[in-house]
Amino acid sequence: APAGPTQAAPAAQATPTPQTPTISLHVGIPGLVYLGQPLEELLQRFPGARVIPFAGQDDAAWVRMPKDGISCLAVGEPPHGLRVASIGFNFDTRYEGIGTGAFRTAKGIGRGSTLNDLVDRYGTASEIVADKHTESVLSRQPDDPDAPRKHIYKNEDNSVSTYFVVQKGMVLRMTINDNAPLDKYIVKGGRDR
After folding, report:
1. 3-state secondary structure of 92
2. Which of left, alpha, beta for 12 (phi over 0: left; psi -120 to 50: alpha)?
3. Which of 146, 72, 158, 160 is nearest to 115 (CA)?
4. Of 23, 30, 29, 34, which Cα lies nearest the Cα of 122?
5. H or E element: which one contains 42?
6. pLDDT tens digits for 137-162?
7. Torsion of CA 105, 171, 130, 82, to 10 degrees
8. How many C-beta atoms surround the C-beta of residue 36 within 10 A?
9. Selected residue with higher pLDDT from 141 and 165
10. φ, ψ dihedrals at 154, nearest 5°
């Protein structure tokens, strides 16, 4: 029988609602969690967030919102100059204690997205590398099709890198990195090093 007006559409045909947060590729979620956002503002938006110093530094901190599926790294001059420089969004897997979130990118990548979806919507990645947690496994088995890989996309001036972790053909999570502040405070070990 044809679907009547009171029957719901099948789940496969469901579309995100206007309330579903939308991730802009090299930005984050404008007005909620985004690159360059002051740490104080982020904590106002997520009052239950946990702030953990990064590697004992006072100029870098992990900010974790496990129930929201989001984690961030904030860097800058303490105490009030810390700003979001990296944002991680979990789509389909619990990762480092962070659950999954109900968000999608502006082009529809999110929970249930495949590698084919990613390539169809964003094109071929500028670089594909091993996920950091599996590099030792990949060095022994570099052609393992089940190993997680980072599909990296860069903005026009290479100042922001966004990568999607794909494993077994499924997009699991994404991370957006503002490269200059991460280089200054994390890669080089902090502002005083």
Report:
1. coil
2. alpha
3. 146
4. 23
5. helix 39-45
6. 444 455 677 889 999 999 999 999 99
7. 40
8. 12
9. 165
10. -120, 150
